[in-house]
Amino acid sequence: MNIRHYWPGTKRELYVLYELCTDAFLMIVGAGAFVAVGRLLANLLQ
Hints:
Layout: H1 9-45
């Protein structure tokens, strides 16, 4: 099932942009969580 093939170009581009934004958002959230856990561990180990 390739839904993108049937979509007009603008919608396809918007969908790809949306995918890229969600991926970047998840990466930023993951990095933030990683840093937060690292700081928490550093505080506990002091």
